[in-house]
Recover the amino acids of this structure.
């Protein structure tokens, strides 16, 4: 699978963008001389050599906030994505392999979580907590968004558990936890990867949404808080488009990169998509040949 991703153009482009964003976030102190909360210029100063992306209403450097905000948004996205994926994978494998009463109990709670609309639930919880920190938002997302992962993982586990190598392990008397961890889980890596990337995209966008609505910590530095502050300062109304555009571009770029890697994993793991790609190229060659004739 890894070799397939290396050869996949979408995966290469997506991973390159993600690596670029991560490096920019890590090397933020080296890439900008300003602090993310320091007043370093005039209010709503247009982009220039001194301030590449201009300044905010209170004179903070937008480029600096973009770099430091990436740290928070990436931490929330990958942290919540890992928690969502871990819960969904563990419960899905247990439900699909054990079946019976265990499956019914897990399905009951899964259906209960699925019935409740996710975004309104998040809004209520965040409003109840007040100005939620990025860590609290990540925990809320992790413990309320795992149900879809359970459904998908359970369905794959029901298929894998009927394979000969699983039956052989059962006949040899291996414990159930070992079968689930070392026989079933490795065959679900592609599904787990897709679930993880989808969860990261969901977490990053949802965190930005909650903070944009004023339910996050206004003292934190993240892309969502940048959008919130830009909206409160009427950035677009006064012509300071850079204040709003910078975090929007960061969110869009990260979302596109994660989606590209997600599509690439799906193509590598799904033989039908690989076959469809080859057939498309073959038909293209046939049409090109007919055109020359």
């Amino acid at each position: 699978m890894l070799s397939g991703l290396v050869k996949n153009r979408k995966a290469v482009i997506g991973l390159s963008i993600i690596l670029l964003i991560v490096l920019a976030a890590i090397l933020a102190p080296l890439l900008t001389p300003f602090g993310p909360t320091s007043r370093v210029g005039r209010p709503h100063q247009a982009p220039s050599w001194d301030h590449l992306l201009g300044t905010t209403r209170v004179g903070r450097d937008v480029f600096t906030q973009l770099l430091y905000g990436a740290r928070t948004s990436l931490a929330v996205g990958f942290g919540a994505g890992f928690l969502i994926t871990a819960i969904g994978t563990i419960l899905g494998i247990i439900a699909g392999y054990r079946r019976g009463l265990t499956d019914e109990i897990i399905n009951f709670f899964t259906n209960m979580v699925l019935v409740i609309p996710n975004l309104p639930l998040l809004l209520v919880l965040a409003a109840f907590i007040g100005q939620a920190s990025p860590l609290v938002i990540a925990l809320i997302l992790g413990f309320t968004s795992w149900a879809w992962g359970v459904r998908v993982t359970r369905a794959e586990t029901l298929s894998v558990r009927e394979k000969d190598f699983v039956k052989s392990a059962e006949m040899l008397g291996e414990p159930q936890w070992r079968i689930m961890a070392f026989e079933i889980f490795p065959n679900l890596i592609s599904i787990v990867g897709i679930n993880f990337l989808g969860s990261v995209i969901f977490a990053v966008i949802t965190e930005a949404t909650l903070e944009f609505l004023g339910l996050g910590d206004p003292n934190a530095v993240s892309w969502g808080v940048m959008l919130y502050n830009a909206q409160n300062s009427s950035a677009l109304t006064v012509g300071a488009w850079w204040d709003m555009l910078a975090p929007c571009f960061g969110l869009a770029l990260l979302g596109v990169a994660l989606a590209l890697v997600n599509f690439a994993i799906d193509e590598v793991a799904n033989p039908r998509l690989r076959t469809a790609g080859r057939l498309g190229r073959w038909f293209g060659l046939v049409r090109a040949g007919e055109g020359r004739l």
In short: The domain at 66-292 is CATH 1.10.3720.10 (MetI-like fold). DSSP finds 14 helices and no strands in the chain. The CA atoms of residues 85 and 196 lie 5 Å apart.
